[in-house]
Design goal:
The complex is a heterodimer of chains A (112) and B (117). Chain A is an all-beta fold. Chain A contains no helices and eleven strands. In chain A, strand 6 and strand 7 form a beta hairpin. Chain A is globular. With 117 residues, chain B is mostly beta strands. Helices cover 0% and strands 51% of the residues of chain B. The radius of gyration of chain B is 14 Å and the shape is globular. The termini of chain B are far apart. Classes of the chains: A mainly beta (112), B mainly beta (117). The interface between A and B is medium-sized, with 24 and 27 residues.
């Protein structure tokens, strides 16, 4: 089946530093790429998404970039804070439909 | 404005029993998705439903699993004759509909953690 690869699996940064998480996908028909934050014992929370007709999108400290030619997209978190600590998942739409393929997640730890 | 609601939050079943997981989408949302998450794994798509319709069940195991979204009431994911390998977190998501058709943005519930003894 189509895959979404996510790296790194764990990431530790100091408060105030930036964090970057990268994903690649294989389905050339994918056209929607959301990012979710999951805290322990909770459901995934949508933090930002991007569609294939856009190369970059920013929302305060969070930005996402998409390179459709290379089939990869990245999440950038600037000025990290301890409350950013969580597991982050990237996802890509299956074909151009509504179901999502998820990466395996990145466990981000922000130390004070 | 309540988010996606799932119950129960935790469910313990013995092998061979049935598990019923319920999902109420956000108000105004008519599209429901079910995903399964194994420990330290990403979410795996199972099924996509609209009211009274299964749109895509390509991720559902062929046996023992079924899903419905009736005209009235929550969506139900049903697992018959559970086995230990069914132990996982099951998440439901919902999405709204726009004038152009269903939107892709999905909002997730808190999940049901199923443990099969």
């Amino acid at each position: 089946g189509e895959n979404v690869e996510q790296h790194p699996s764990t990431l530790s940064v100091q408060e105030g530093d930036s964090a970057v998480i990268k994903c690649t996908y294989s389905d050339s028909a994918s056209n929607y790429f959301p990012w979710y934050k999951q805290e322990l014992g909770k459901g995934p929370q949508l933090i930002i998404d991007i569609r294939s007709n856009v190369g970059e999108k920013k929302d305060q400290r969070i930005a996402v970039t998409l390179n459709k030619t290379a089939k990869h997209f990245s999440l950038h978190i600037t000025e990290t804070q301890p409350e950013d600590s969580a597991v982050y998942f990237c996802a890509a739409s299956i074909n151009s439909g509504y179901a999502l393929n998820f990466g395996k997640g990145t466990s981000l730890l922000v130390t004070p | 404005n309540a988010g996606v609601m799932q119950n129960p939050r935790h469910l313990v079943r013995r092998r061979g029993q049935e598990a019923r997981l319920r999902c109420s989408p956000m108000k105004g949302h008519s599209h429901v998705y079910w995903y399964r998450q194994l420990p330290e794994e990403g979410l795996k798509f199972m099924v996509y439903l609209q009211k009274e319709n299964i749109i895509d069940e390509s991720g559902m195991p062929k046996e023992r699993f079924s899903a419905e979204f009736p005209k009235e009431g929550p969506s139900i994911l049903r697992i018959q004759q559970v086995v230990r390998g069914d132990s996982a977190a099951y998440f439901c998501a919902s999405s709204p509909r726009s004038a152009e058709g269903p939107q892709q943005t999905q909002y997730f519930g808190p999940g049901t953690r199923l443990l099969v003894l």
